[in-house]
Amino acid sequence: MKKIEAIIKPHRLEDVKTALTQVGVQGLTVSEIRGFGRQKGHKEQYRGAEYTVDLVPKVKIEIVVSDSGLQAAVEAILRSARTGEIGDGKIFVSNLESVLRIRTGEKGEAAV
Amino acid sequence: MWRGNGGWESLKSALGGKDRATLQRWVFVWLGLIALGWFWLIPTYVTAQDKKEEPAKPTAAAPEAPKPAEQAPVLRNDPNGGKTGDVTILSEVNVADPGPAPDPKDKDYAAKKKEYDEKKKAFDEFQEMNKREPLAAKVAAAAGKNRAGLNMTWTLITGFLVMFMQAGFAMVETGLCRAKNVSHTMAMNFMIYPLGMIGFYICGFAFMFGGFGSAATMGGPGVMDGMITVGDGWNLLGKKGFFLQGEFYDMSVFALFFFQMVFMDTTATIPTGAAAERWKFSAFMLYGLALGTIMYPIYGNWVWGGGWCSQLGAKLGLGHGTVDFAGSSVVHLQGGVIAFWFAKMIGPRIGKYNKDGSPNPIPAHNIAMCVIGTFILAFGWFGFNPGSSLAGTDLRNAASVVNTMLASATGALAATMWIWKVRGTKPDTSMMCNGMLAGMVAITAPCAFVGSFSACVIGLISGIIVVESVFIVERKLKIDDPVGAISVHGANGLWGILSVGIFADGSYGENWNAAPGFVKGILFGDAGQLASQAIGAAACIIYMSIASIVVYKVVEMLVGNRVSPEVEMEGLDVPEMGCVGYCGMVMDKASESPVSK
């Protein structure tokens, strides 16, 4: 099993969700987060003065997929979250030791 | 000495080393007792004064003397309202009793005698007409009563609009602050309303309008006749009408009191914006009381209550004396000067300035509140300016309304275009709001005296002034004013009061402040008027600077003005008020405060 964490632009969330559903992803977790990368924040203006907002608002989605479903899911995110501009975000993939469904106590891929 | 708490330390040791909280408690108990004493003492004193003219009761030594008729003390006031407003209010039929004949020894006896003879002739003719046609006399009396009623209704209703401006101020100021200080900023804007009101009732109105004469447009009797005078008849301060007792229990006086009270509250709420986000609530309360009782009424008396600024025209021939129709100087410049000194002395918010002195912007938390507040203020201003005629039958009210509207439009447009196209940044929303307010502040003094084109020009200039002065205050003077109160009310209040002396076109204000002719600015041939305006503005700035510094220092000694840095970083809502403005919302308080580099 793999865990995919993707940080995307907030306004791409709907597209990413649709694309993931189409490739068979059953569920996902979304959090509103802030952070910075190479973009190093953005500029805003208030009463004639410019200032830098260091931490840019982003959305983080977390999904868990089986090893075989990884490729399709990653490609779906890549396709739907991309605008081609700076600040499109990143995808992190990691190995997952185990998953448990609380209601039934199922383990492993059955619980995903 | 004061800032370093040295004054407090010496006081503490003099009083035997009691701790600060205990001493404060005692100070407040004593202040409370003194206030209660006033409430009891002053009405008693005033009533005794009014009854003084009552003839002495016959003594036992002369029982055979005829008993004089039981005589009630002669009070001229009208608590019932039934007698207020009679035929004398109708200026069309000049029937006022001319009073006693002039003294032949007077130096300008000839002129006075001529005036007296004219009045006497009209009065005698009217009396004869009364005898000949009693119905006409009754109709004239009813017409006079109606005019008084219409004027009073106008004064009260426009006063209600002005009262609603408190909501506008609360929204603008709170919207421009940070989310962690919402409860505290709102509380200040709320509490100033009852606090200033009570202060004005206790003695503020007496100081300001004690010697005003009569509320003539509402047909009031001349009961406001207590004035402290120095030298050659220069009026300094009113001294009658504390707690509205005695002869001030009169309906025309009450209407005037209400209208002036809401104006005072407008001034009172201006500095709460400039010192917001770091002002101790207890310190603010003391300021609020000081403003309503003493700070505001003194200069108010000089310009509006018949004091020396308004006498400059009649006594020295400088135009019509300081002319301020609705309060560019009395309300806004005074508020702006207090805002300036309080913001300067309390110091900038943490993180506002870097070590090299460059400012960091601290963005507003709710621009929508700021915009809605500005609209509420613009609505209230239609009471503020035209209402200041105190007369619904004064048809010049239409000019006041149109001028107020035009100046607000050009002010908003000018501020927007100036910051956008000339200063080259984005057309800032909060600055648009400041621009509209600036236009209305500037047109407040000249609104009834200028033409529509002059109003546009006054508003246009005010829009540029507000943007530039925000930059000067923030970047050159290094004063942190979160809402722009110094620029909107101070700088444009000054511009407004001077603009009367420039643009007044001589179509209104006959015999204003007892000076002959109409009010004319320097562009229409009366340089003396501009001189009067400049003297009035200078008096306002000098007097209010001294008063602000004294009040600030006294409050600093009693309770301290600024919250601790920990409280400021946490946000004043919970430490000062006990509850947050936005319950249930997660706030990133650290990121709300910029870090000084």
Rg for CA atoms of chain A: 17 Å
Reported by name, the CATH topology of chain B is Ammonium transporter fold
Mean pLDDT metric of chain A = 90
The ordered string of helix (H) and strand (E) elements of chain B is HHHHHEEHHHHHHHHHHHHHH
Largest sheet of chain B: 2 strands, antiparallel
CATH architectural label of chain A: 2-Layer Sandwich
Number of domains of chain A: 1
**Helix-strand pattern of chain A:** EHEEEEHE
Which value, in Å, is the CA radius of gyration of chain B?
26 Å
List the strand order in the largest sheet of chain B.
1-2
Helical content band of chain A: 10-25%
Q: Give a count of the beta strands of chain B, DSSP E runs of length 2 or more.
A: 2
Q: In order across it, which strands form the biggest sheet of chain A?
A: 2-5-1-6
Instruction: Give the CA-based shape of chain B.
Output: globular
| Stretches with pLDDT under 50, minimum 5 residues of chain B | 58-63
CATH class of chain B: Mainly Alpha
Describe this structure in words.
- The complex is a heterodimer of chains A (112) and B (597).
- With 112 residues, chain A is of the alpha+beta class.
- In chain A, 20% of the residues lie in helices and 37% in strands.
- Chain A has a four-stranded antiparallel sheet, with helices on one face.
- In chain A, strand 3 (42-46) and strand 4 form a beta hairpin.
- In chain A, helix 1 runs antiparallel to helix 2 (70-81).
- Chain A is elongated and about 60 Å long.
- Chain B is an all-alpha fold.
- Chain B has a single domain (145-592), classed as Orthogonal Bundle (Ammonium transporter fold), CATH 1.10.3430.
- In chain B, 61% of the residues lie in helices and 2% in strands.
- A two-stranded antiparallel sheet of chain B has the order 1-2.
- In chain B, strand 1 (227-230) and strand 2 (234-238) form a beta hairpin.
- In chain B, helix 5 (182-209) crosses helix 6, helix 9 packs antiparallel against helix 16 (527-558) and helix 13 (429-444) crosses helix 14 (452-476).
- Residues 58-63 of chain B have low confidence and may be disordered.
